[in-house]
Amino acid sequence: MLISDLDTPALVIDMDVMERNLTRVSDYAREHQLRLRPHTKTHKIPALARKQLHLGAAGLTVAKVGEAEVMLDAEPDDILVAFPVIGPAKLQRLMTVAELTRITVALDSKEALAELSEAASQFGRSIGVLIEMDVGLGRVGLEPGPAILEFARAIEACPCVTFEGLTFYPGHIRHMDHGATAALQAVSELVNGAVQLLETNGFEVRVVSGGSTPTLFHSHEVTRLNEIRPGTYIFNDRNTKDLGACSLEDCAATIMATVVSTTVRDQIIIDGGSKTFSSDRAASGEASFGLVLDAPDAHFAKMNEEHGFIDIRGAGRSFKVGERVHVLPNHVCVAMNLHEQVYGIRGNQVEQVWRVDARGKLQ
Amino acid sequence: MLISDLDTPALVIDMDVMERNLTRVSDYAREHQLRLRPHTKTHKIPALARKQLHLGAAGLTVAKVGEAEVMLDAEPDDILVAFPVIGPAKLQRLMTVAELTRITVALDSKEALAELSEAASQFGRSIGVLIEMDVGLGRVGLEPGPAILEFARAIEACPCVTFEGLTFYPGHIRHMDHGATAALQAVSELVNGAVQLLETNGFEVRVVSGGSTPTLFHSHEVTRLNEIRPGTYIFNDRNTKDLGACSLEDCAATIMATVVSTTVRDQIIIDGGSKTFSSDRAASGEASFGLVLDAPDAHFAKMNEEHGFIDIRGAGRSFKVGERVHVLPNHVCVAMNLHEQVYGIRGNQVEQVWRVDARGKLQ
Prior knowledge:
The structure is a homodimer.
Chain A (H helix, E strand, L loop, with lengths): L9 E5 H17 L3 E2 L9 H9 L5 E3 L2 H7 L6 E4 L6 H10 L4 E6 L2 H14 L3 E7 L12 H12 L3 E8 L11 H21 L6 E4 L16 E2 L9 H5 L10 E9 L5 E4 L3 H4 L12 E3 L6 E5 L4 E4 L12 E6 L2 H5 L4 E6 L2 E7 L8
Parallel strand pairs in A: 1-16, 2-9, 3-4, 4-5, 5-6, 6-7, 7-8, 8-9
Antiparallel strand pairs in A: 1-10, 10-11, 10-15, 11-14, 12-15, 13-14, 16-17
Helix pairs in contact in A: 3-4, 4-5
């Protein structure tokens, strides 16, 4: 099948670019002896998780139990659930997953720890725990310092759970050009301090898991870090590019759309809006919903659910109803979540049709 | 099953409120002799479309062919595809749907008209056409005036398509308090002028289809309007309420979430973010992602895919990990699209589990 045979809107993935992205990070991790546990929330496709494992990933990362269930298809040795698992329904499902692969959970509360330990005891499982640490984002995580030590002791005191180490997400470092070196140095000091405090008190810190997409290739600069869990790197997106973490040539995923109306002067409407791209804004905060590759100076200015409004005043060209446009989405993870299936392309050929099996796994 | 037995995040629909909303609009349409053709993009569930038809809806509205395919389950006499259907793949599928129910399409371009007529001829179908008219939103549609007449003549000249009338969406009228009466009066004049121009030139304008959620109960004030196709009214949402088009008591759909982290001062994190609520902002444009019903003065200030950040400084109360919160989503249509299934509740009982069959139908 040719790309031109696909109906729109369609999310297409350039497999050459994707494979280059996968190899680059796999090589980087190997070179710096970092364990690679990719976050599968970006692609949500077991076949792609399998590719990551074949290239040397030591395990997988997920956000939800439902994603872990789907990712079992990739037969990972190990899954990290990088989100607190709360409540009996999810914990019971997690214990079923834990029968089939090793499970580690990132936690920051004694409530979640107690529930996890109880479920693990009840089902006779052993679950690893990473302590979630807040290194500056202010989202989840304990403050580096005495709270970490206290929590490690609490884990040690609970049956059927094992303290494995620390995890953090430096999501506050957005752009590698803007004072990021100093910010990353500060993170490194916090991490190092927390590890030392734990070791001084007799804890073995086997895993120090961290990093983010913008800081990815600086991960080796963080003292004691031994595991990375990037997600977006497989495809990259407009925000990754705008934040300086990749180039346009590294962006593998594009949404192909059709011009459906041109009646309003200086504007075209395409057959995809917030249901196709998501309403995530540009990294700058600007109401700009994707980069139109056919006319980079056009402005994807507004969206309704099914309508994308593209201001073509800067485009330097006109468009006709029925013509196709190719848009680099702002945020590929949420875009993937909106598509039932996506297409792997090489040249002008459609080589793969992938169902996005882990999309919509909210629980 | 009790609501408390549901895992989170879960989208729950208060069936008493929903039924009251359905009856109210059904009664309004009957009272004013307006044909009701509800837009199913809000609920995306054939069982709810069936309820609308039982309450007197004359047909259904959809945005995409994929939604029309799903909505055949509700056995409508008539489906309006309120979006230009472009390209052979979609047109072929539309012709299959047209074998089972009467199809009307809203169009604004000769390119789309030619394609539709050709497909209808090829498959031996007769398809109705409404001319899409721009009454001020600046999205799609022809300008009221000579362009409308010219397009009606073009339809008449094409085989297997029939001119049915006009359609418009006054989406530029957002808040019924702010100069909306004058704006609606202007719309009414445009519509009336267009109908008269067509009639003077010998066209019978059987359908004049229009309206929006904020203007819903003012539809009878638009001269010559004889059909409404509201969507959001079945559930309503925070934006409908904020725009003054319903009260809080009319909001039927709530997202139930769990507090998963409280480590950051004055903030709680819930287990749903942009993958659960969508990243659609409040109607005001403010970065506020839903109304926390348990603490209306808390501020749902930020989102990542799986994390909802709620600033609880104004909440006047604290929250514990594991506690549930109930959030009125900003925009229920896009929220529905993110959930595999939703729950119909009455009192504290779960009465229905509905699969959201038309979610993700992008084509």
